[in-house]
Amino acid sequence: MGVVLRVDLSSRKIVKEPLEEELHLKYYGGRGLNAKFLYDELKPGIDSLGPDNKIIFGAGPCTGTLVPSSQRFTVTTKSPITGFIGDSNCGSSFGARLKYA
Q1: Is-contact 21 9, C-beta < 8 A?
Q2: Could you tell me which residue ranges the Aldehyde ferredoxin oxidoreductase N-terminal domain spans (predicted)?
Q3: Cα 39 to Cα 28: distance, rounded to the nearest angstrom
Q4: Which of 21, 38, 84, 89 is the most buried (most CB within 10 A)?
């Protein structure tokens, strides 16, 4: 149903992967999926400002539709301030562009 686009800025590689339907149903929306990916893929104790940290941009299932207030996306990473996962939710046409990239 969805797609995961992995962009490695160091190697300049882009890989497009299908999003497993189970993940899509269990971790609904950009924020839930972003948190799941970070939880699974970040090694404990990594430096939040180091190269192993990830910044994840995610769009929800209604993003890019005519549903009111649905033009939103979420950015999630390990925070250098708290050391915990933090996220920010933003609204603009970028969310729809991200979803259909």
Answers
A1: no
A2: 1-101
A3: 15
A4: 38
Q: Is 45 left (phi over 0), alpha (psi -120 to 50) or beta?
A: left
Place of tokens 């925070």: 79
What does the alpha-carbon distance between residue 4 and residue 27 come to, in Å, rounded to a whole number? 14
* pLDDT at residue number 1: 61
Give the span between the Cα atoms of 81 and 32, in whole angstroms. Answer: 21
* 34-66 tens-digit pLDDT: 999 999 999 999 999 999 999 999 988 888 888
Tens of pLDDT, residues 62-97:
888 888 888 889 999 999 999 999 999 998 888 888
Query: From its phi and psi, is residue 83 left (phi > 0), alpha (psi between -120 and 50) or beta?
Result: left
Q: Which two tokens stand for residue 78?
A: 């390990």
